[in-house]
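Worked Example 4.2. Consider the chain below.
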Amino acid sequence: MAEIAATDAGQKPTSLRTVVAASSAGTTFEWYDFFVFGSLTGVISKTFFTGLPETAALAAALALFGAGFLFRPLGALVFGRIGDKAGRKGAFLATVLLMGGATVAIGLLPSYTQAGIIGPALLILMRIIQGFALGGEYGGAAIYVAEHAPANGRGRATSWIQTSAAFGLFGALIVILLTRLAVGNEAFDAWGWRIPFLFSGVLLAISIWMRLKLTESPEFAKLKAEGNETKAPFKEAFGHWPNLKLVLIALAGVMFAQGAVWYTAFFYVQTFMERFLKVSPETINLLMLSATAASAVLYVFFGWLSDRVGRKAVMLFGMILMTAAYFPGFHMLSKTLNPALAEAEAATPVVVIADPADCSVQFDPVGKASFVSSCDIAKSTLANAGVSYRNEPGVPGQPALVRIGAQTIPSTSAEGLSPPVAKAVKTSVENRLKTALSQAGYPAKADPARMNLFGAFGVLLVFVTAATALYGPIAACLVELFPTRVRYTAMSLPYHIGTGWVGGFVPFTAFAIVTTVGDLYSGLWYPLAFTVISIIVCLIFLPETKGKPLS
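Applying the procedure from the previous section yields the following structure tokens:
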């Protein structure tokens, strides 16, 4: 890495190492905040959505995780405008302050049991602030580094911004793991989950100290000295067709896939292993820590490679690899982590026979719907058990039946019954189904003695390779794609629509699809569709940007 960053005449040269370290430290911290929440959705659902059924509580927690991403494009617009008009440094210093304050506050919030609806309401507010702040963070950090880096080294230099995601995830997972080991699972679920959020206060102080040492980027300083900074960044970025065209190409040709691939590889895979494969949180954390450690090296490698062969070829490799790996990879995870489940599904498939009119789409993140029909009770029990099932139409007006091999278990409707009686009915159906599933060889939990952890890690490594090949060169590509005058605004919006709206909702949407369709792997169609769109658009429309002058 070059020791001295590019700078205009008259401005004191800045060490590129300092620029990269300060930018990456702040981004690492902000990713840590988001990853702590994403990794603790199960605990969050129990703490803040106690009054909801188990499936609805998890859905609400996953939706809340996505809500943080929902506001990222708004943050991108607000901080992008500030960055293009007033400068890069001030914009991303403000983002780290907002993000840190919201994260520490989550660790202090009262639970649903302690304060009722106030707890979830405050949690939603903090998530919105987090998403809003992160919307301005990534673009500012990536642009700041790229505008300091030499033209032939932008891919490698900006790849450290991508690596900060690995450091953030690694830090989040290791703090969670150490806290679990220190206080035990029961105490962790009760109050220990707050420690990772409160620990971010230390990281916040370090990030602020490092960023205060930075000066303005040379590209923007030169632009401002010449009086050429934009006065209307929104109009220039989105109202001028050449710039708007680039925004659309960046969104559909790169960011659709980045959101889908990255969040499947690092987040939905955790939901899948915990929720459906019944793998213990400690095992998941260890696997993800190993995969994340590998990703830290791969981000830099693929960023460096893009400086040699071009951004487009490297990113396309990542997209195509993940497209080929989605379904085979998740099937392989089932076979390596819970072979008893895979064997039971092959030997004794489960069929739900029900009147379609009796079945609801069990998608209720706010917890207002009541899924008490015989079909809904049967399907929710199977989904909670991590069991795939096939749907067959039943006799109109008749209760649902669940066929497990040679056994046929009738479900019962709880419609119109008082809550205590309805709960008793559901419990009765659940117990009968769980007994039948156990007799058919369906495991209640993954057996550690039968796990092939090296095989599972191999699958995760394929996912990580695809994600890092796509993500490693992205910062350099996006910075080079847009003109300096509107770079912050034009780059940040597509980035955060892709990561926030496509990627952020991968766990939530995929989970909802699975519980509706009944196939554990059906949720993968969501990220696959966005990845395929990006492959087509990237091949046809995305220009190669390697070595392009930034001015």
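The chain has a mean pLDDT of 84. The longest strand covers residues 350-354. Compare this with Example 4.1 before moving on.
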